[in-house]
Design goal:
alpha/beta, globular, binds flavin mononucleotide
């Protein structure tokens, strides 16, 4: 690692720099939760209730972070969660983050509501991307999206279940977040004092819905609507098991169901898809939701040791990732950290986030004499009094 590590040894050290370089509306879009930000805060608090008792005297340890998922070996047990409108937060983000993920052989997930199109991003992913589907109400659009993702080389499909309605997102309302950004004096001023963001946006183009915009055209099946309104209306869909079955019949490849929090849902899901993805959307949907870390041990117990569990929401460090793996996850995804790195320091910042997470995790594995990621599951975990939730079943 370069001297960047001396200046920014942790992801949290880059947060202030990122916020200064992003217009206020873009920073609020990235950092806000929903409601009173209780879920957002609880996501972080849960980590402070998990401890690892070190065990020594096992001789030399060379931690190996390589992790297999759906038969493919990644270089680390973590990757980039789907984050919509990424290029609103930092210009050209989807391409920069795709390149980072390919370079480091970790997964990159592209949101349905990305700013850069699925076709364009697919070109940078070496056939290794994950496409995230907000299940459109319109099945013609859904089928077309699935085809476009497949044709663009995406191999895994994430279906997001946790948006039966868009949440209130009070901070986003107050900050006036929209795509494209509102053309008013306030937005203009916020952008003007962030020259790197503004110049980047001039070069990369005003953020739009790169994948979804084509469906809002009146010539497409259905009626024309405003672009933002159209993308929004397509995203609000109550998912059900029949809909999942239909997607299962269309998508040839692994399917991951994202946004699960309930034990019964998780058990039932194992019959329909290839992996469960525990997530509370980074505290952006249900403000009174528990943290994913808190529900993980129970869900792992109920679905058995073999069924793949992916997790996100609040994982900001190698320590956090380690705790997720110890408590039963096979893979950890993270949303905000890579964008924080990108906004703070450009493409090298996103790469630096990867290096930090990997180095922190590897360091802990040496401390506890774990040779590989699987061995983390056998470590002595101690849970604080405030960790456990009663009556989860
Ligand atoms: C700004 C922002 C936009 C997001 N957009 C999407 C999205 O388009 N699709 C999706 O499934 N999840 C989306 N998420 C949720 C992330 O996939 C992930 O669950 C969340 O970021 C995890 O929490 P973390 O940011 O604390 O790592 C978004 C999250 C953020 C912060």
């Amino acid at each position: 690692m370069s001297s960047l590590v001396d200046k920014y040894p942790r992801v949290s050290d880059m947060v202030g720099v990122a916020k200064r370089r992003m217009p206020h509306f873009a920073a609020e879009y990235l950092f806000a939760g929903t409601g009173y930000d209780e879920a957002l805060e609880n996501n972080r608090k849960a980590f402070n209730e998990v401890f690892l008792v070190p065990q020594y005297l096992k001789g030399t340890v060379n931690p190996n972070l390589k992790t297999k998922l759906f038969g493919y070996e990644y270089d680390a047990p973590f990757g980039m969660a789907p984050v919509g409108m990424t290029s609103l937060m930092w210009p050209g983000a989807e391409i920069a983050l795709s390149k980072m993920s390919v370079k480091n052989n970790i997964p990159f997930s592209l949101s349905t509501v990305s700013c850069t199109s699925v076709e364009e991003v697919g070109k940078h992913l070496d056939g290794n991307g994950w496409f995230q589907l907000y299940p459109p109400a319109d099945k013609v659009i859904r089928n077309d999206l699935l085809k476009r993702a497949k044709d663009s080389g995406f191999k895994n499909l994430i279906i997001t279940a946790d948006i039966p309605a868009s949440s209130r997102r009070e901070r986003l309302r107050m900050a006036g977040v929209s795509v494209p950004p509102k053309n008013n004096l306030r937005t203009f001023f916020q952008a003007a004092i962030c020259p790197s963001w503004s110049i980047g946006t001039l070069i990369n183009g005003i953020p739009a819905f790169g994948t979804m915009d084509q469906y809002s055209d009146g010539s497409w099946h259905g009626n024309a609507k405003s672009k933002a309104g159209f993308a929004g209306s397509q995203m609000q869909r109550y998912l059900d098991w029949d809909y999942l079955k239909e997607v299962r019949d269309i998508w040839k490849g692994p399917i991951i169901l994202k946004g699960l929090m309930d034990i019964e849902d998780a058990i039932k899901t194992t019959k329909f898809v290839d992996a469960i993805y525990l997530s509370n959307h980074g505290g952006r949907q249900l403000d009174i939701a528990p943290s994913t870390l808190q529900i993980l041990p129970e869900i792992r117990k109920k679905v058995g040791s073999k069924f793949p569990i992916i997790i996100d929401s609040g994982f900001y460090s190698g320590q956090d990732i380690c705790k997720g793996l110890m408590l039963g996850a096979d893979f950890v995804m993270t949303g905000r950290p890579f964008i924080i790195g990108l906004a703070a320091l450009g493409a090298k910042g996103a790469n630096h986030v990867h290096d930090i997470l990997k180095d922190e995790l590897s360091n802990i594995m040496e401390q506890v004499c774990a040779e590989n990621v699987k061995e983390l599951k056998n470590q002595k975990v101690v849970l604080g009094n405030n960790f456990k939730l009663n009556n989860l079943n």
